[in-house]
Automatic annotation (TrEMBL):
EC numbers: 3.1.1.-
Listed InterPro entries: AB_hydrolase_fold (IPR029058), CarbesteraseB (IPR002018), Carboxylesterase_B_AS (IPR019826), Lipase_GDXG_HIS_AS (IPR002168), Type-B_Carboxylest/Lipase (IPR050309)
Occurrences of domain Carboxylesterase type B (ranges): 6-320
Class of enzymatic activity (EC top level): hydrolase
Family: Belongs to the type-B carboxylesterase/lipase family. Belongs to the 'GDXG' lipolytic enzyme family.
Keywords for the protein's UniProt record, in alphabetical order: Hydrolase
SUPFAM superfamilies in alphabetical order: alpha/beta-Hydrolases
MF terms in GO: hydrolase activity
Protein name: Carboxylic ester hydrolase
C-alpha cells in the first residue's frame, strides 16, 4: 500500500505528523502519559511534559516490558506482536482515521489482550484500515503489563494498567477531535485481558463520561483477584526478587529482573476460603478489586453505556490443542475463564441499563492444527478487524488454518461492530433475562 506524508496534527502535548495511505491516515506512537521509568513505573500515569517541533508519527512505539509466550504448534505472532521492543516511552496510542479533519466521526478505542503480561499496539491483528475505510477513527492503546502494571504493592496505586487505560481515554476526550473523531461518541472495546479491563471500566466511577459504548470480547466480569489472592502473588514476587514488597523497593529493580522471576510466579495456588482462581492458573496477574465488576456495575457508568458482549464457543482449546495437551476439559476451562463471567456481566448490565445490552456468540471453527483448534480464544479477532483473508493468518500454523475464511463472515462481524459504534445497535435485538437473545456468528 503506497504511503505519503499526512497532515500535521496538533495534540495537547505537541504536533505529530503521520502517513497517508489508501485507507486514510495513520499516526503512531503518540504519548498519552509520561514515560513510566524508575519509581514512576509504580505511580499513577502522569501527564506528558510535551515536546517541541513535530513528532514523527510514522514509526511504531516501543512496547511494555514483556516475556516471550510460546503457543507450541500455533503461530500467535499476529496476536502478541514483536514482544518487548525496548524504549521508555511506551504509554502511547496509535490513531487510524479516514482523515484528520472536522468530521466528528465515531471513535473506537481498542485495549489489547495477552494475559495482563503481553501484547501491544504493534500486533498485526490490530491493523485498523478496515475501521478507517468504514468511517471510524480507531485508537489502539499500550498500557503497563506484568509487575509494573498489576502487582499489588504497598505505596503504589492498584491496577496501574487500568489507570493507564483511563488516562488514554482522557487523552482521547481532549485530542481526538483534531484527528477527525467525535469525543462524545467513543466506544471502548477490548479482547481477553483487555476485555476484562473494559468490564472493570463499566464499574469504575472515574470512567464516567469517557465513553458512550463498550464491547467486551472474550473477557470476564468475574476475572479479578481478591486482595488476598493478589497478596500471595506479591509475596512470591518479593521473595523471588529478594526485595521488600513496597513500591520504593521495587522501583529500584530493573525490568529485566521482573521478567526473569515470572516463572517463579507461575502455578501459584490462589484458591482461598472465599474465592477460586478466576484465571485458572494461566496468569499471576489480573485486576485487584474488592468486588467483581459484574457485582459492582452500579458504582460506575454502566447503566448509561451501551454494551456489546460475547465469547467464543470453544475458548479453552487455545490453551490445550497447540501444546498437544488432552482436549478433554477444554470446554470447562473456557467457561471458567470467559463464559461464566461473560454471562454474569451481560445479565448484570441488562438489569440496570434498560435495553442497552447486546450479546453474541462466535462459533466459527478455525481449521488450524488439523481442524482441532476450532472456535478457540482469539479466533474472532481477524473477523472483527476484517483481516481474515490475510495470508499470515493461514497455512499450517496460522490462527485460521489452511482453509479460506468463510465468505461474508468478516463483513458481517466487522459490520456489526461498526454499526454498534455508530448507533448503539449491532443489528439484532437487545438481551434481557426475559428474552436472552444471542446472535451467533459462524
Amino acid at each position: 500500500m503506497t504511503r505519503s506524508p499526512a497532515p500535521v496534527v496538533r495534540t495537547p502535548a505537541g504536533a505529530v505528523r503521520g502517513v497517508r495511505d489508501g485507507s486514510g491516515e495513520l499516526y503512531r506512537a503518540i504519548p498519552y502519559a509520561a514515560a513510566p521509568v524508575g519509581a514512576g513505573r509504580f505511580a499513577a500515569p502522569a501527564p506528558h511534559p510535551g515536546w517541541s517541533g513535530t513528532r514523527d508519527g510514522a514509526r511504531p512505539s516501543p512496547t511494555a516490558p514483556q516475556p516471550v509466550r510460546d503457543f507450541g504448534a500455533l503461530d500467535m505472532t499476529p496476536y502478541f506482536g514483536p514482544g518487548w521492543v525496548r524504549g521508555e516511552e511506551y504509554l502511547t496510542v496509535d490513531v487510524r482515521t479516514p482523515a484528520a479533519d472536522d468530521g466528528a466521526r465515531p471513535v473506537m478505542v481498542f485495549v489489547h489482550g495477552g494475559g495482563f503480561v503481553t501484547g501491544s499496539t504493534r500486533a498485526a491483528l490490530y491493523d485498523g484500515h478496515a475501521f478507517a475505510r468504514d468511517g471510524v477513527v480507531l485508537v489502539t492503546v499500550n498500557y503497563r503489563l506484568g509487575v509494573p502494571g498489576f502487582l499489588d504493592l504497598a505505596g503504589a496505586p492498584r491496577n496501574r494498567g487500568l489507570l493507564d487505560v483511563l488516562a488514554a481515554l482522557g487523552w482521547v476526550r481532549s485530542a481526538i477531535a483534531a484527528f477527525g473523531g467525535d469525543p462524545g461518541d467513543v466506544t471502548v472495546f477490548g479482547q481477553s485481558a483487555g476485555a476484562t479491563l473494559v468490564g472493570a471500566l463499566l464499574a469504575t466511577p472515574l470512567a464516567a463520561g469517557l465513553f458512550r459504548r463498550a464491547v467486551v470480547q472474550s473477557g470476564s466480569g468475574t476475572g479479578a483477584f481478591t486482595p488476598e489472592q493478589a497478596g500471595r502473588v506479591t509475596a512470591a514476587a518479593s521473595a523471588a526478587l529478594g526485595v521488600a514488597a513496597t513500591a520504593e523497593a521495587f522501583g529500584a529493580v530493573p525490568d529485566e529482573r521482573f521478567l526473569a522471576v515470572l516463572p517463579a510466579l507461575a502455578g501459584l495456588d490462589l484458591r482461598t476460603g472465599t474465592a477460586a482462581d478466576p484465571l485458572a492458573g494461566l496468569s499471576p496477574f489480573s485486576l485487584v478489586l474488592d468486588a467483581q465488576p459484574a457485582d459492582a456495575l452500579a458504582d460506575g457508568p454502566a447503566r448509561d453505556v451501551d454494551l456489546l458482549i460475547g465469547s467464543n464457543t470453544e475458548e479453552g482449546r487455545l490453551y490445550v490443542v497447540p501444546q498437544g495437551k488432552p482436549e478433554e476439559g477444554a470446554e470447562a476451562l473456557g467457561d471458567v475463564l470467559f463464559g461464566s463471567g461473560t454471562d454474569r456481566l451481560a445479565l448484570a448490565h441488562a438489569r440496570i441499563s434498560g435495553g442497552r445490552t447486546h450479546v453474541y456468540s462466535f462459533a466459527h471453527r478455525s481449521t488450524a492444527l488439523g481442524g482441532r483448534l476450532g472456535a478457540a480464544h482469539t479466533v474472532e479477532l481477524p473477523f472483527v478487524f476484517d483481516v481474515a483473508d490475510e495470508p499470515w493468518l493461514h497455512g499450517a500454523t496460522g490462527l485460521l488454518g489452511p482453509d479460506p475464511a468463510p465468505a461474508g463472515l468478516a463483513a458481517r462481524v466487522h459490520g456489526a461492530w461498526v454499526a454498534f459504534a455508530g448507533t448503539g445497535s449491532p443489528g439484532w435485538a437487545a438481551y434481557s433475562a426475559e428474552h436472552p437473545v444471542v446472535e451467533v456468528f459462524g
